[in-house]
Each structure stands twice: as structure tokens, then as C-alpha cells.
Write a structure and sequence with these properties.
- By secondary structure, the protein is mostly helical.
- It has helices at 3-37, 40-69, 71-90, 95-110, 113-123, 127-157, 168-177, 195-218, 223-245, 259-288, 294-299, 302-322, 325-341, 351-354, 356-379, 386-406, 408-412, 418-442, 460-474.
- The longest helix is centred in the first third of the chain and has 35 residues, at 3-37.
Length: 483
């Protein structure tokens, strides 16, 4: 990669890092938030899900905005909004204000992830793109893994409120670097965004989440549960209908005709549901069950973080050369085995024998998975649609986390004791293995780059890749190529 391309990767990593970090750093702060503001498990669930509802639904419209108005412009607005809403969360004085502020933060976060990844795929091509995606994936996943450690340190040394202020520095650095990567093409004239589709998706997800969170306490017969769930399902069905008839849909359904795209997103659904559930229950239990301070609870996942830093870029390059199928099959299964090893956790607690072996195996499996998964999905779509393709994939991962967090009370049996933790970890392991099985039967190595950058096309997805490569060669980008 040349200097401009490396700068693009740095900006993409920083911009998405803050969104990924804030999405998971809250987990380690949940016990402190509940102790300070009250509200029990419901407050803890909504502190996570309010962010994921708006992030998961509006990330689709953000993808359209990224393609229509330019990655740099959308990134700038997202960064400014994310900084402001993070301060709002830090100042929250009761659970309702906290949940509302987290929802606003998700709106800003939705602008960051698809635009940052699309910045890479639109300006870097060939083997360098696979390496760049590997670096991006490594550091954004590191944000998910290192977040509990950073959050724990802030909770123990300062306050849970400072957890939401730690992204100010990367936001400021990113805003300073953005002007240095050059200009973008002018926005497309007459661009229209499907606001109705965005509203149907947002309120549909919200209704479904309300039902899932409240059901363990109120029961299926309560009006809040059946009305919220029923309305949510109807609105989501309306969202899918809208995407079929809208002239400019925010989630073009024709993307799902591409084999690697729909299969990769199905694998994403399983894998990221497991990651979200495991990140929630393990960090909270280590504080409430094993009575560890927040910092040590966060350190528990640090070995997996180190594996991601050391190996993800290399795995991304190998996946670009050999194809993603083997990595996406073996990786989730290995991660599932690592999660199953965590079933050794019990009282009296011993980190070295009960947690560390499982975390190491889990981290190795995750390292093998995430970069090839991203490359397989985005590599199957025409680069001109990279923004919306990235948005759909990120929306799937966020919705997976959203739904599984909403179901936590049902999964753990209403109590996060050792038995409840084991039930959640078993669900995580099954979900990860399911992601590997889906990848084995569904993913095709349709775009394996050799030394000359040739492509081998297998079906419509491969044809789309070849067309994308043709567009790459003709793209008029300064010091960069379309990817």
C-alpha cells in the first residue's frame, strides 16, 4: 500500500473504532450503571439495546447516504454527532435519560461503520484491499475485545460516566486527518433517501425488542408484550415490502441474490449473536458472580485481543489468496470450542484454569473468522455499491446482538448465576458452530486473487466481482483505485 492508502486505512480504523468500542465498552459499566441509576436487569438490557436499535436500523440508510453524498462527508457528520451524544450519555441522571441518549448515540454511530469500510473498498483494490480489510477488521474487532478492559479501568479509577468520554481523542484525530486524503466525486444529483423504509425498520425492531425484554417479567399475555411484538413483526414485514417497491431502497433485496452475500450475512447473524451474548454475560458475571473489579473483568479477554492484533492482517491476506470458505468454516467452529471450554467456570473461581484456555481458543477462532467473513461479503458485490453492502452486513451483526441481548433473561432463566452463565455460553457455542456450518455449505471461493490478480467466477456473484474489477481499472480516483 502507498502512503495515501495507508492513511485511508488509519482513518477508516479510527472512525469505526469509536463506534465498535462504545458498543461493547458499556458491558463492563453495566453493574456500576445499575448501582448508580437503578432499574435492575431491564436497565442493563436497554442500555445496550437502545444503542443497537437505532444503530442496526439506521445503518442501512447511512449506507445509502455514504454512496450518495460521499464517505468523507458522512464520516464527518457521524464523528461530530457521536462525540456530542457520548457526552450526553455521560451526563445522564436517570435510566430514562440514559436510554434516550444511548439511542441518539446509535444514530450517530450508524454513520460511521459503513462509510469507513466503504472508504477502503472505494480507494484500495487488488491484494492490498484484502490486507487493508484485514487490518480494519483486526482493529475494529480489537475494539470489541479491548473495550471491557478500558471500560473497567475507567469504572474502577474514575466513574462509569468516563467510559463514554474515552472516544473523544480518536474522534479528534480522525477529524484532523480526513482532509488529507483528497476530494471525492460530487454527490449524485436528485438523490432521495427512503425515510419511510428507515422508520418501518427502526420502529419494527423497537417493538420486537420491547416484547422480548419485557416478556420474562410480564408474560406473553400482557398487552405490552403481544402488542409490541405483533406490531414489530408487522412493521418489519412492511419494511421488506417497502424495499421491494421503493425506487431507491435502503436495503436492496437484489443483493441477497448473490450467494456469498446472503450466506455470509446468515453466518454473520449467528456469529455476532454469539459474540454479543458472550461479551455481555461473561463481563457482567465476572463482576457480579466472581466479584472481580471491573478492570480485571475486562482483562479476561485481553489474550484474544493480542491474537487478533498479531494475526488478523495475515489471515486477511491469506483469505484473499486462497479464498474465505475454509477460514469461515474452521474459525467459528474453533471459536465455539473455545466458548465451550468456558463451561469450566464455577465457584470457587480460578481465571487461569477456567477462563484463559477457552479465551485463547476462542480468540484463535475469531481471528480466523472475521477478516475472511468481511472480505467474502463485500468482495461479492460491485464496488459501486460497497457502502450499502457494508451497511447491510453491519446492520445484520447489530440486529443479531440486539435480539440476543433482548432475550438474555429468557436464556439465563432470569438470573445470571453460574447455571445462567453456563446456559448462555452453551447457546453461544451452538451459534458459533452454526456459523461455521453455514459457511461450509454456502460460501464459494469465487474471487481468489492469484499473483496476477485474476478472478475465478462461479455464478452470478463471481460475475459481479469481475464487473467490479473492470470498474476498478477505469475508476478515476486520485492515488487510489476502486475496490
Amino acid at each position: 500500500m502507498n502512503g495515501t492508502q495507508r492513511l485511508v486505512v488509519v482513518i477508516a480504523v479510527l472512525a469505526s473504532f469509536v463506534s465498535f468500542l462504545d458498543g461493547v465498552v458499556v458491558n463492563v459499566a453495566l453493574p456500576a450503571i445499575e448501582a448508580d441509576l437503578g432499574g435492575g436487569l431491564t436497565t442493563q438490557q436497554w442500555a445496550v439495546d437502545a444503542y443497537l436499535v437505532t444503530l442496526g436500523s439506521l445503518i442501512l440508510i447511512a449506507g445509502s447516504l455514504s454512496d450518495a453524498f460521499g464517505r468523507v462527508r458522512v464520516l464527518t457528520v457521524g464523528l461530530l454527532g457521536f462525540g456530542a451524544t457520548s457526552l450526553f450519555v455521560a451526563l445522564a441522571w436517570d435510566p430514562t435519560v440514559l436510554i434516550f441518549a444511548r439511542a441518539l448515540q446509535g444514530v450517530a454511530g450508524a454513520l460511521l461503520v459503513p462509510s469507513s469500510l466503504a472508504l477502503i473498498t472505494s480507494r484500495i483494490s487488488g491484494p492490498a484491499q484484502s490486507r487493508a480489510i484485514g487490518v480494519w477488521t483486526a482493529f475494529t474487532t480489537v475494539a470489541m475485545l479491548i473495550g471491557p478492559f478500558l471500560g473497567g479501568a475507567f469504572v474502577d479509577l474514575l466513574s462509569w460516566r468516563w467510559v463514554f468520554v474515552i472516544n473523544v481523542v480518536p474522534i479528534a484525530v480522525t477529524l484532523l486527518l480526513l482532509p488529507r486524503i483528497g476530494t471525492e466525486p460530487a454527490p449524485a444529483p436528485g438523490t432521495r433517501i427512503d425515510l419511510l423504509g428507515a422508520a418501518l425498520c427502526t420502529f419494527g425492531l423497537a417493538g420486537l425488542v420491547v416484547a422480548l425484554i419485557e416478556q420474562p417479567d410480564l408474560g406473553w399475555g400482557h398487552p405490552v408484550v403481544w402488542a409490541g411484538g405483533g406490531l414489530g413483526v408487522l412493521l418489519l414485514a412492511g419494511f421488506l415490502w417497502r424495499q421491494r417497491v421503493a425506487p431507491r431502497p435502503i436495503m436492496p433485496l437484489d443483493l441477497f441474490r448473490v450467494r456469498n452475500f446472503w450466506t455470509g450475512n446468515l453466518a454473520t447473524l449467528f456469529i455476532y449473536a454469539a459474540l454479543s451474548l458472550q461479551g455481555f454475560v461473561l463481563v457482567v458475571w465476572l463482576q457480579q458472580g466472581a466479584e472481580l473489579p471491573a478492570t480485571l473483568a475486562g482483562v479476561a479477554a485481553l489474550p484474544a485481543t493480542l491474537l487478533m492484533i498479531l494475526l488478523s492482517s495475515r489471515v486477511g491476506a491469506l483469505a484473499g489468496r486462497w479464498g474465505p470458505r475454509a477460514f469461515m468454516t474452521v474459525g467459528p467452529i474453533v471459536a465455539g470450542i473455545g466458548t465451550a471450554l468456558l463451561l469450566n467456570i464455577r465457584l470457587p473461581f480460578d481465571y487461569w484454569w477456567q477462563v484463559l484456555p477457552g479465551v485463547l481458543v476462542f480468540g484463535l477462532g475469531l481471528t480466523l473468522t472475521v477478516s475472511p467473513l468481511t472480505s467474502a461479503i463485500l468482495g461479492s458485490i460491485d464496488p459501486a455499491r460497497s457502502g450499502i453492502a457494508s451497511a447491510v452486513n453491519n446492520a445484520v451483526s447489530r440486529v443479531a446482538g440486539l435480539l440476543v441481548i433482548a432475550m438474555i433473561a429468557a436464556i439465563i432463566g432470569g438470573r445470571l448465576d453460574v447455571d445462567g452463565l453456563h446456559r448462555a455460553l452453551l447457546v453461544c457455542s451452538v451459534l458459533l458452530v452454526a456459523g461455521g456450518v453455514v459457511s461450509f455449505f454456502g460460501i464459494r471461493n469465487e474471487h481468489v486473487r492469484g499473483h496476477a490478480g485474476s478472478a475465478e467466477d462461479g455464478d452470478a456473484a463471481g460475475a459481479g466481482d469481475a464487473a467490479g474489477d473492470s470498474a476498478d481499472a477505469a475508476a478515476p480516483a486520485p492515488s487510489a483505485e476502486q475496490g
